[in-house]
Write a structure and sequence with these properties.
Rossmann fold; five-stranded mixed β-barrel; 287 residues; 7 helices; 31% helix; alpha/beta; globular; 9 strands; binds hypoxanthine
Length: 287
């Protein structure tokens, strides 16, 4: 069975599980950021383990299930937990869930992650909207034969894809407005992706700063690339869970990352309850 057929099968399974719900917006929740899913009344929950071909997360703090339903009245599908390259998954496995969202007909995704803060003015716990990224993961998930059938949206599925506006200006503006209405600023930053799983050295962080990065993390970029390949609009939101290596006083730990995530996840939930309806408005009725 081809990769495309596996994606199609997983999407067909999920469509049956979702019944009449036809989401156009997806949300991917990063380490310790699961609370948004609790804002959905009477959700449909599908553990990744039940979905054909779906990869399973092996990391603590990533629960591994799909939560679908109405978020403030808007149909959404939430991926609670993701799989990472550092777990030993191939680039195609890492991006399998995003491909399935594309096959479901999604038009926009909000990708959240935990990130180390490189910019000097960042505070632990602050949220930053991604303006751009730098891919230092060492691979591109689109490498290999192009599969034009992933062009679910008009004009997408191309061999060479434009990444000039990988992170949608429109969605960033809506996110900034929603954050302001919730009473907090939302800065924009540049996310540099590494493969992990070791955290960075202080020398690497100094190098990344010189390259123009303000955030560092181990996810999101492969998902953004395949989402753009499928013509899906992307909003990236990082939670600065720790200061990057060499900038704080303590050693870095996954516990700190998850603990900060837990402190901030309710703020993200409020932000999304306001933001998602504004993202959905122009997509309404879209096929
Ligand atoms: N580095 C890489 N990934 C991360 C970090 C970090 O400091 N914090 C959360 N994810």
């Amino acid at each position: 069975m081809t990769y495309f057929d596996q994606v199609t099968e997983a999407a067909a399974f999920l469509r049956a599980e979702l019944g009449p719900l036809t989401p156009r917006i997806g949300i991917v929740l990063g380490s310790g950021l699961g609370a948004v899913a609790d804002a959905i009344p009477a959700p449909t929950i599908v553990p990744y383990a039940q979905i054909p071909h779906f990869p399973q997360s092996t990391v603590e703090g990533h629960s591994g299930r799909i939560v679908a339903g109405l978020l403030n009245g808007v149909p959404v599908v939430i991926l609670q937990g993701r799989v990472h390259f550092y777990e030993g998954y191939s680039p195609r496995q890492v991006t399998f869930p995003m491909r399935v969202l594309g096959a479901l007909g999604l038009r926009a995704v909000v990708l959240t992650n935990a990130a180390g803060g490189i910019a000097e003015n960042y505070q632990i716990g602050q949220l930053v909207a991604l303006r751009d990224h730098i891919n230092l993961m060492g691979f591109n998930p689109l490498a290999g034969p192009n599969e034009p059938r992933f062009g679910f949206q008009p004009g997408s599925g191309l061999r060479f894809i434009d990444m000039t506006e990988a992170y949608s200006k429109r969605l960033r503006a809506l996110a900034r407005e929603a954050a302001a209405a919730e009473g907090f600023p939302l800065e924009e930053g540049v996310y540099l992706a590494v493969s992990g799983p070791s955290f960075e050295t202080p020398a690497e962080i100094r190098a990344f700063r010189a390259l123009g990065a303000t955030l560092v993390g181990m996810s999101t970029v492969p998902e953004t690339i395949v989402a753009r390949h499928m013509g899906i609009e992307v909003l990236g939101i990082s939670c600065v869970t720790n200061l990057a290596a060499g900038l704080g006083l303590k050693p870095l730990s996954h516990e700190e990352v998850c603990e900060t995530g837990r402190q901030v996840e309710h703020r993200i939930a409020r932000l999304f309850e306001r933001l998602i309806p504004s993202i959905a408005a122009p997509l309404a009725g879209a096929k």
